[in-house]
Specification:
mainly alpha; two-stranded antiparallel sheet; 6 helices; extended; binds zinc ion
Length: 160
């Protein structure tokens, strides 16, 4: 039962809007599956309708298909211990790209500096040390700067 009552939940509609053309798709609230369980058929049908619409955007399809192939290649190769350093670099490049693409937050130098100014750290040397440490942690989490993976020499995991 929803917090609005079952009748209100039945009337509730959500809009999903295509970012490429603005076309809108209406759906009722899904009974969302828990990760690891089967996806409800109504969710599958809705996503299939979105996929069918995407086919009308030919310019987006090519890059989307390449991304899907790379993701599939990544998921397959991560099941193996790989000796080939080039293949490992390509696999790492795809993983890094997914990490960047799906990361919700990005922390800037300015945010670190501003947040440090709100702490009781008055000693400039201590503040500079903490700021440097926080930037390094940020770079490690965001895989940037000295923590960025090396660039692969060839990009796709899957060649068509
Ligand atoms: Zn569209």
């Amino acid at each position: 039962m929803s917090i609005f009552g079952d009748k209100a939940a039945d009337q509730l509609k959500y809009i999903t809007t295509c970012r490429l053309c603005g076309k809108q798709f209406t759906s009722s609230p899904f009974k969302v599956a828990v990760i690891g369980q089967n996806v409800p058929p109504e969710v599958i049908r809705f996503v299939e309708a979105l996929q069918k619409h995407l086919l009308t955007h030919r310019e987006a399809i090519a890059s989307l298909q390449l991304a899907i192939q790379q993701y599939a290649g990544y998921m397959v190769t991560r099941q193996f211990d790989i000796q080939d350093p080039q293949l490992s670099r390509v696999q790492e490049g795809v993983r890094h790209h997914l990490h960047k693409m799906t990361r919700k937050e990005t922390i800037t130098d300015e945010q670190i500096t501003e947040n440090l100014l709100m702490t009781p750290i008055d000693d400039p040397d201590l503040r500079a040390g903490v700021e440097s440490l926080l930037r390094d942690f940020r770079d490690k989490l965001q895989e940037e700067g000295r923590h960025a993976p090396p660039k692969p020499e060839n990009s796709p995991l899957v060649t068509v």
